[in-house]
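Recall that a protein's primary structure is simply its ordered list of amino acids. Everything else, from secondary elements to tertiary packing, is in principle encoded there. The following example makes that idea concrete.
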Amino acid sequence: MEKLSIKFAIEDGYNVIAPERKTEGSAGWDFHIPEFTSSFIQAFEANTQKIAKKEEEACDKLRQLEWPSNKFPYIEASTDPDPVLVIPPQSRAIIPSGIRLSIPEGYVVEAANRGGLSSLYGLVHGACIIDQDYTGMVFLSVINTGNTPVVLAENQSLIQVLVRKVEDCNFTQIDISEITARNTERGEGCLGHTDKK
């Protein structure tokens, strides 16, 4: 089977390491922070200003409302013209989607962050796997990692999902020496080990 090839290009004015797998057994490809060239700094500062603006807009939208002291998400019905869902800073919400899925056998649905909500507002998903045998309503678990409230409107896109094939397998217990005897480049290195090369 031919190996999949992913093409990429580097922006003008940037010096960055190409995406790489740190070890042969790594599942993901690492993307690196570019060198702090003037192009990088200009883009970084522009994005930081976008985040600050979004946080300011969220505060403006809430006007002079009283914040609950318990830090739990809530629906604010007094906003004009429509109510909003408010997720306070450093809190999480479990939002009912109103949807059930019929997932084919051998597949799983996986939630993923939406770029704008996670990058600009700090809103990231929590639980992300929906098993094929789950028939109940899907709940959207989100966490506000930012320092200001996130205000969500009705019908606003919140997360994206991916449908993935799941490999059927068995876990078979073996002696630990069979694992430690494997001579891999990474070995037992963990928690940032591949960044120390």
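The mean pLDDT is 76. The chain has two domains: 11-62, 66-168.
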